[in-house]
Design goal:
Bound molecules: 2-phosphoglycolic acid
Strand content: 15-25%
Distance between the termini: 25 Å
Helix content: 25-40%
Length: 236
């Protein structure tokens, strides 16, 4: 079932997202959260930090698996997704960092790292709630438009449009990594519940993903087949 929640703006989208995530942690204190980076979930993460600071949430038993990481960036590089997660969320709540997982962008054997990441997700029993943003090209995680959907965690060549979009965080576009490690569609589709957050600039691609044909050219379109998908869209 797909539930679409239309909110007035980014603040309201973030509030609804944070409430949903908080409910998950309250219902299952040892849940596995699938987490995403990017500008879209930043507001939601800061509201979760506020909830924690008010004593409303306890993350001590929560585990997390992040969707993706740039290949070639170390965890202390301020553009790495591990750094993002620590900075925006993990450093401010009582989650056990040993239970937080992000693919290792410096793995010497990237394919082995991807296989180990899938094994880890299996060991954790899969994801309870998967948070997603969406790229302008319809990517989720770094599953870029392709001829096929890829099930497993894999190494991906980033599209030019993705590199362009993400260059806003880097001093120079030449510094944006061209490859990434990303969770594949299996982990995402097997999550018990998926929460897709989309700001106003993503309205068209969300419409295409939810109402257009299911095709690997729009990776997020596969979510139409997910049994428990909530989409929160900011109208403005
Ligand atoms: P954004 O990125 O949240 O920074 O817009 C989303 C994505 O590319 O998946």
């Amino acid at each position: 079932m797909i539930k679409v929640i239309r909110t007035t703006d980014y603040a309201e989208m973030s509030r609804r997202g944070a409430d949903l995530l908080a409910a998950q942690v309250l219902q299952k204190p040892n849940c596995v959260l699938g987490l995403a980076t990017g500008s879209t979930p930043e507001g939601m993460y800061s509201l979760l930090v506020e909830k924690y600071q008010r004593g409303e949430l306890d993350f001590s038993q929560v585990s997390s698996v992040n969707l993706d990481e740039y290949y070639g960036l170390s965890s202390d590089n301020d553009q790495s997704y591990r750094y993002f997660m620590n900075y925006h969320l993990f450093d401010h709540i009582n989650i056990d960092k040993a239970k937080t997982h992000v693919p290792n962008g410096l793995a010497a054997d990237a394919d082995a790292e991807c296989a180990a990441y899938d094994a880890l997700v299996d060991e954790l029993g899969g994801v309870d709630l998967q948070v997603l943003g969406i790229g302008n090209n319809g990517h989720i995680g770094f599953n870029e438009p392709d001829e096929v959907f890829t099930a497993a965690t894999h190494v991906v060549e980033l599209e030019e449009s993705t590199i362009q979009a993400n260059s806003r965080f880097f001093e120079d576009i030449s510094q944006v990594p061209t490859k990434a490690l990303t969770t594949g569609m299996r982990t995402i589709m097997q999550a018990k519940r998926v929460l897709l957050l989309a700001g106003a600039s993503k309205k068209d691609i969300v419409d295409k993903a939810l109402n257009g044909p299911i095709t690997p050219q729009v990776p997020a379109s596969l979510l139409q087949l997910h049994p428990n998908l909530t989409v929160i869209i900011a109208e403005n």
